[in-house]
Amino acid sequence: MAESPIPLICILGPTAAGKTRLAAHVAAAANGEIISADSRQVYRHMDIGTGKDLEDYTVDGSRVRTHLIDIVDPGYEYNVYEFKRDCVAAIREIHSRGRLPVLCGGTGLYLSAVLQDYQLLSAPPDAARRVELQATPTEQLIAELRSHGPLHNTSDVEDRERLIRAIEIVEADPSARVPSIALDSRAFGLRWERRDLRERITQRLAYRLDHGLLEEVRALLDRGLTHDQLIFYGLEYRYVTEHLRGDISRGQMFDALNAAIHQFAKRQETWFRRMQRQGIDIHWLDGRDSPEANADRCPPR
Predict the structure, then answer these.
(1) CA-CA 20 to 30 A from 128: which of 95, 96, 177, 241?
(2) What are 47-63's pLDDT values in tens digits?
(3) 165-200: string of b/e by CB count within 10 Å (b at 16+)?
(4) Is 252 contained in some domain?
């Protein structure tokens, strides 16, 4: 017997759009709990650079309960397979207590994995198969990956190591598949004029640099994380580490990081348009409106 679809509200948008505050108000009004769909907020000790903005989860003096924040240590490479597995479990647990899951984030791949119910496999590296793949021409590898079906992430064909890993994943044992989940979901996005969003990004970056971002990155380096590891965790950690190593000045760091975040926001918006083309109906809200007003426009079905 097929399970009944679980109601879910999704709040999405580019970086600095104000997603967290809106999601908190939606959850507070609808007896809900928030599930973070952010590929970096899963990490402990990485608060400022990942934009956790924990104070935004408090509405009228009460803290909205959150899930999938601070669940692994820096140094670990959390992935989309693990996210979907953990997110499905959180959705079911929240629903079992009669509360509404509110999925909130800007990591497009994570959002699509849940809303579009990607069929994902756990795939431990296969040493023998990897040797075989590494000896195969790139064009042949691309053809091999495409033979398994449509690509969820086109960047897999742009990097040879990612391409090999993607083939390992699609060839994995089907018994290791993340469970599917039936959702009755509604997606709401925060939209800003390009100029206004750029200004918000720049102001937020300046604030974070003045309120502990450098100290946070220095503490991660003191914990033993390397520059290469910090690059994995995103733009802020890459450029701040280069500054702390003396490779670039503070001004160079700010300018490069600011420009990179602006480009990242554009890529997020491109992904959201892709989701819409693939059938996800996103109701766009004006970011200039208050979170209280926008929350009233995000009722569950």
Answers:
(1) 177
(2) 999 999 889 999 999 99
(3) bbbbbbebeeeeebeebebebbbbbbbbeeeebbeb
(4) yes
Q: What is the CATH number of the domain that holds 235?
A: 1.10.287.890
Question: Is residue 172 located within the same domain as residue 212?
Answer: no
| 261 within domain boundaries | yes
Strands 6-12 and 32-36: unpaired
How distant is the alpha carbon of residue 205 from its chain centre? 19
Q: State the total domains in the chain.
A: 2
Q: Which two tokens stand for residue 279?
A: 């059938």
Dump pLDDT digits (tens) for 5-43. 999 999 999 999 999 999 999 999 999 999 999 999 999
Phi/psi-derived region of residue 38, left when phi > 0, alpha when psi is between -120 and 50, beta in every other case: beta
- DSSP H helices, 11-126, are 19-29, 80-96, 108-115
Range of the domain at 206: 194-265
How far is 77 from 57, CA to CA, in rounded Å? 26
Q: Residue 205 in contact with residue 300, Cβ under 8 Å?
A: no
Written as one letter, the residue type at 99 is R
